[in-house]
Amino acid sequence: MPLPKMPTKPADTITQKDMAATKLPANATPKAKKKPATKTAVTAKPETTTAKASTSAAKAAPKNGQKTAQPVSKAKLPPRPPRKKLVETTKQSPLSRAASQSGETKLFVLDTNVLMHDPTCLFRFEEHDIYLPMITLEELDNHKRGMSDVARNVRQVTRTLDQLVADVDETELMEKGIPLNKLGNKEAQGHLYFQTKVEAAPLPKDLASDKADNQILGVMMGLVATHPTRAIVMVSKDINMRIKARALGLSSEDYFNDQVLEDSDLLYTGTLQLPADFWEKHGKNIETWHENDHHGVSQTFYRISGPLVPSMVVNQFVYMEPQDGETPFQAQVKELNGKTAVLETLHDYMHSKNNVWGITARNREQNFAFNILLNPDIDIVTLVGQAGTGKTLLALAAGLAQVLETKRYNEVIVTRVTIPVGEDIGFLPGTEEEKMSPWMGALDDNLEVLSKSDQSEGGEWGRATTQELIRSRISVKSLNFMRGRTFVNKFLIIDEAQNLTPKQMKTLITRAGPGTKIVCLGNIAQIDTPYLTEGSSGLTYVVDRFRGWEHGGHVMLARGERSRLADYATDVL
Q1: Is the whole model's pTM more than 0.70, yes or no?
Q2: Distance, first Cα to last Cα, the chain
Q3: DSSP assignment, residue 400?
Q4: 115-124, 167-176, 295-304, 398-407: range with lowest mean pLDDT
Q5: Nearest to residue 475, comparing CAs of 466, 487, 484?
Q6: Rounded Cα–Cα distance for residues 436 and 413 (Å)
């Protein structure tokens, strides 16, 4: 089926002055918009400009004397709406759920591991009160020494508690409690209570009274006996601790305030499939024009409006499944302004002439990934997918192409967290790069693939020279020495990012200086770090927080391309 021709006269574009003049105040009532007579209505399906961009540009060229469309001025995006808070009622205990439904404030007894896991947890319980047993403070004192993340978190909690108890008399500690918003945390409206007297109830004979977990359970049993009408809930990251509490008839919950999502299936995919009737519902008063992308290739832009626009996100990829041999439509959301959206067709990296360091995209998602990896306006890219989807290969090919060919960046820096899958093999000898080399097997494997795809002249000697040049422009760095650094004009690849905590991810991303692009790769189904889950991983945290930012892009790779054996093993094992 031949594609329809573009309109002979492109519609006028909106300028900044027009937008400012038509913007309504917050308390004003919007008036009905009149349809301008100069708009060209296009209800047919638009063409896509990918490898045949020059042909489509020739079709859309204006005649002599006809007004040409000017590039759209980028309007300032409105501030991102606050992220919806997920209420995990399914993980609450029956007592806690009943208190939530009745609006009653709860008293949370915190286990030590919660404070070690999240040093800011004291301010994350909203209007509810917090109770700290004395044994919890003793355990914090036992873990404050060292250079590990746990020791740093403990010292941070200790400093916070010291600031809270400053200038507080004993009556407040025992009766009124300490306001948690004392240090400026407005969301925390509850009070903090310390154990100031022996409140432990007798434990069952089988439980050792000298164990810290059992002492906390005894304190909680004493609180329940003293305050029978109060909803008292223990919060712990220790599963066995929660099971013992339930066995003793006590209410217990996991700490899930650190979880971005309650289900990994809710993770933002970065793509949106358009329905078959998309152009029938969104093709009214459509505006089209052409602009050159960063490759100098003409791409088609569409300004649309319709019921699907509110669900779109800036830099999200939209696509329509081809029907009856039609050319597939693939585009990226470039701008959202009220009820209108601007879509830009993509550069086709599935075509061999558009290969990136000899690599072409094998599926739709890989083509999406190349479009954001090679876009200089995108500062941070997150690629999530199962094993064998090509995350590392795509990122490395894009990095080498922009370092050695276009000279956009000075160097490719690769780093990853050193979390072993099995038992630790001990200390490794050598320099920083030599110590990191056993952890960079994936880098070596992908460099081998890229060197085989290199078609440079000179035979084996030429390929060896090229490989040495590539090695000289790739640096392997350890996470342990990242704090305080600033990377300028670097292409930074963070591999296995699912094993990083949100705090570690913040430390790495804030290292970016001018002209630096950060690429985070990972598979949230393969987390090796203890106490990290799919919902609390730093990779999930970054995907959620950078969603909708005009300089951030995300793609979830779904189809494995490593081998048929790897794909089958992923499905059946």
Answers
A1: no
A2: 43
A3: H
A4: 167-176
A5: 487
A6: 13
